[in-house]
Design goal:
The protein is an alpha+beta fold. The chain has four helices and ten strands; from the N terminus they run αββββββββαααββ. The longest helix is centred in the first third of the chain and has 41 residues.
Length: about 190
């Protein structure tokens, strides 16, 4: 009887190890399928003349229930310009900005809440925005109509991915492969 009791825990541990190994293999297979299905698309971006890229923040966003990454403005190294996802962006040959941030190579990122005067100056000196694209995808759920910035940004505001698609259709721009993180963990 003593030998039977000792063999039973060993059999359970072998079963548990096998189940864990099977689960790990299944997870890797599932990850490989997702990577093969979405990997190429999510590594695409549009390089802007101002030195930034429009593209996906990561291959998979762990903070999203469907692991769907969002669009962002990022440096060629793949690092996002700002930590938050911009709901809409404007770009020019020298500038990129959204409702709460503005960027230019000589100033870096300026947040509206930190320096309103510089923020407004960067936007005023930006020049023609979004390269003449004329489609407006204003989303009142993101920026309500009673928001102070709703009239200032309404005419041609795009989300980063939609703007990337619009610019990629223009002869001046083309989609290219860029550095993209594999996962995004922080909201």
């Amino acid at each position: 009887m003593v030998g039977v009791d000792e063999a039973q825990p060993q059999g359970c541990s072998t079963f548990a190890a096998g189940a864990i190994l099977l689960l790990a293999c299944f997870s890797l297979l599932l990850f490989g399928l997702f990577y093969a299905a979405f990997g190429h698309e999510r590594r695409q971006c549009v390089a802007l003349p101002n030195g930034l890229n429009l593209g996906y923040s990561a291959m998979f966003d762990i903070t999203d229930p469907w692991f769907q990454p969002r669009g962002t403005i990022k440096f060629p190294s793949g690092k996002p310009l700002i930590a938050e996802y911009p709901s809409f962006v404007f770009v020019s040959d020298t500038t990129a900005f959204g409702a709460t941030f503005a960027w230019r190579a000589d100033t870096g990122v300026v947040l509206q809440r930190d320096d309103q005067e510089t923020f407004d100056q960067i936007i005023a000196e930006a020049g023609p925005l979004n390269y003449g694209s004329d489609i407006s995808l204003f989303n009142p759920d993101i920026l309500p109509l009673d928001h102070p910035d709703s009239t200032r940004f309404r005419p041609t505001s795009y989300g980063p991915i939609r703007l990337m698609e619009v610019l990629a259709d223009m002869p001046r721009f083309e989609m290219e492969r860029c550095r993209t993180r594999l996962f995004r963990f922080k909201p």
